[in-house]
Amino acid sequence: MVFPITRxxxxxxxxLPALVPGDFLLVWRxxxxxxxxxxxxxxxxxxxxxxxxxxxxxTADGAAWVEGDNxxxxxxxxxxxxxxxxxxxxxxxxxxxSWGPEGLRWNRLFHLVNH
Length: 115
Prior knowledge:
28% of the residues are buried. This protein has a single domain, classed as Umud Fragment, subunit A (Ribbon). By secondary structure, it is mainly beta. The longest helix is centred in the last third of the chain and has 4 residues, at 77-80. The chain is 3% helix and 39% strand. Strand 4 and strand 5 form a beta hairpin.
């Protein structure tokens, strides 16, 4: 049995300003309702193990078009095309907290990332 919730750390800048490096997210895994456009999803990317991206739309063949909020820092569907549904590993729900060079970011404790 797979636990339905996992934790993911944000390392890159592709989702600025919604997410910042050092955010720790709670992620709902499959099975669950299919995420809607606008949701933040954790994706198994072609060039790295996992990434957090915004679901822009579902394509006609059922794949997901995902993009980072910061296009200058994001490798996403604009580069590698639609992501097969099996590569979406979950939907980000809440940032439990965030840690940066200055220490704990108090203003990011229990910060909702999907409404």
